[in-house]
Amino acid sequence: MKLSKGICYLVGAGPGDLGLVTLRAKECIAAADVLVYDALSSAMLLLWTKSDCEKIFVGKRAKNHALSQDEINALIVDRTKAGKSVVRLKGGDPMIFGRGGEEAAELAAAGVRFEIVPGISSTIGGPCYAGIPVTHRDHCSQLTIFTGHEDPTKGESSIDYAQLAQAPGTKVFVMGIARLREICEQFMKFGTPAATPMALVRWATTAQQWTLTGTVGTMADIAESQGFSSPAVAVIGDVVKERQKIQWFDNKPLFGKRIVVTRTREQAGTLSKELAELGADVVELPVIRMEHPEDKLGFAECVSTAHEYDWIVFTSPNGVQKFFDAFFSIHDDARCLGKPRIAVIGPGTAAKVKEYRIGVDLMPEKHVAEGLVEAFREESIENLTILVVKPEQSRDVVSQGLADMGAIVDDCIAYRTVAETTDPTGAVEMLREQGADVITFTSASTVEHFFALGIPWPENCKAGSIGPITSEALQKVGHPADFEATDFNIPGLVTAIKKHLL
User: Which of 25, 222, 246, 428 shows the smallest number of beta carbons within 10 Å?
Assistant: First the structure.
């Protein structure tokens, strides 16, 4: 049988935490021509795709299926036969209650190439993040995994509760919350003591994780009284007792706090990562994106003549990156920059410069434009040439301030910020429906473009500002900052968030 030129990857997306996605899975997603995904996959995975990737949602929300399983099978076969690199992204592991085996069989029967990329299953990852080891030498050395939801076309259940109840060790099941009372009753009917410890973990490994503990005899009542619902994983056995000692994930300082990051997608990573490591539920809602400046030729000329200046001033990390991207497209040797001295507005910009193995000669104590101008007063710059690398529509404080000191100043417009018009992860709707504890703003432009979206401000939500210029922008739109970073950078903003929320 001749195989098609296309290939389909059946990829496990893990249980929810983006950090639990395998390197192989990320490679496949980044190279995909077509991404076929379900509702259990982290929406942030969509940001790893190519700009021209065809993204197709085929999962289900509530009881509404976007596509039937037969339609999904036909879809992935069709796209693969068309020579595409297709990724079928499935929550957890594709071969553990994910129907990955059925999809692989369809691909094989159609004569198309496919690979299976395992993922961390929620049956293992969920209990782990709840502080429950599914095996433990003091409690058990056997693990049984089953599903509480079977094929509805089957006449009778194939789950042998009599055998499950008598099996030693830990029992873990998924997709059984709707039948929780029935499942618990079946276990007790066939001999499981009502006092056997039991736990439920909802939205496991995410900052929305919610864990209930009880016993086989009490869990149904507890879950109903708490309004507990799927998606969740259930654990039955003495290992549940270990949670009292090794509970760790939901002990993180910002656990359960939803924080919105409005930076560009390229910039959001650092802030999002630091907040996520503290346990926050981070929602990336980029309201701006960077584009080339209107005068591309003028920017290119500035970069090509940068070696002629006495000073180069960088006012943002973005400006540094855009400048050196252009510089190294022309030159292959950093020494071509010559010997201009380098000034930056703050530590974030300095760190970006140092990524290119270039030193920084001047950085103000106060990390704002006015602070940089003041720092230059300690230098002798009269009649010196200075290139100020900056974005369009930025304040003219630095350029004008240096010119007033007698310097010969040229502006190098490296990029412009425009409104982000796409929302592939559904962050806007999530904010509208679920609200947030904090919305962060890292520039005046993020303020401007966020409020232009017209999203009602969530109840009891706080506005966090990175510094005075951003706070001033918030004041102008009639929504003063609830708190402002003392150090006007990302670590300073994270510190301010912790101080405000803890």
Answer: 246
